[in-house]
């Protein structure tokens, strides 16, 4: 293969995985469609009332529309990217999101996450770990998540103005417990 062709192929494949299918969302509901997207991209989901993580796309639960509601997302090592974030719009019960080693997560993703009205109401815990494209701008954008109670930030080399960034965030979200491991 010519140099760079493998990277081009994976970039193309990730774009395909992250393409939003509005017809699918209408047909199966937002939680099922988001589950399919997240699992295709390598993330895990946990549903309300279930202690176990859904890992297998082929093992997605069936049943009446809206029966299984996403409560938590673990996107560790996944290929989720901004393009697919429209899948999050209809999710009303997500309380926890973990973004770890997500090479396609960048400031625009965090801005989009914080502008999602349902997540502004439901999201309580967020972890962002080893996402190299996240900067101060992306962290500051999280101030719109008004019910966020816990934020863990680790190994984010793009955060350069730590004190200013965290002061802005703490002023906007006074009840936020902020845990940092950024040295």
UniProtKB/TrEMBL annotation:
Taxonomic source organism: Erithacus rubecula (European robin)
Name of the protein in its database record: ATP5S synthase
The cross-references to InterPro entries, in alphabetical order and at most eight, read: LRR_dom_sf
Report which superkingdom the organism of origin falls in: Eukaryota
The gene from which this protein is expressed is Atp5s
């Amino acid at each position: 293969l010519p140099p760079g062709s493998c990277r081009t192929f994976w970039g193309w494949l990730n774009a395909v995985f992250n393409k939003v299918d509005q017809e699918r969302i209408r047909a199966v509901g937002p939680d099922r469609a988001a589950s399919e997207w997240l699992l295709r991209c390598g993330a895990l989901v946990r549903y309300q009332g279930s202690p176990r993580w859904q890992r297998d796309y082929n093992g997605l639960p069936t049943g009446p529309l809206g029966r299984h509601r996403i409560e938590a997302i673990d996107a560790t090592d996944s290929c989720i990217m901004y393009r697919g974030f429209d899948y999050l719009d209809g999710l009303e019960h997500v309380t926890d999101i973990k973004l770890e080693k997500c090479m396609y997560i960048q400031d625009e993703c965090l801005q989009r996450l914080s502008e999602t009205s349902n997540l502004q109401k439901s999201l309580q815990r967020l972890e962002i770990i080893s996402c190299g494209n996240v900067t101060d701008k992306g962290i500051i954008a999280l101030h719109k998540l008004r019910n966020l109670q816990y934020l863990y930030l680790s190994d984010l080399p793009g955060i350069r103005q730590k004190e200013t960034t965290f002061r802005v965030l703490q002023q906007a979200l006074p009840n936020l417990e902020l845990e940092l491991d950024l040295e």
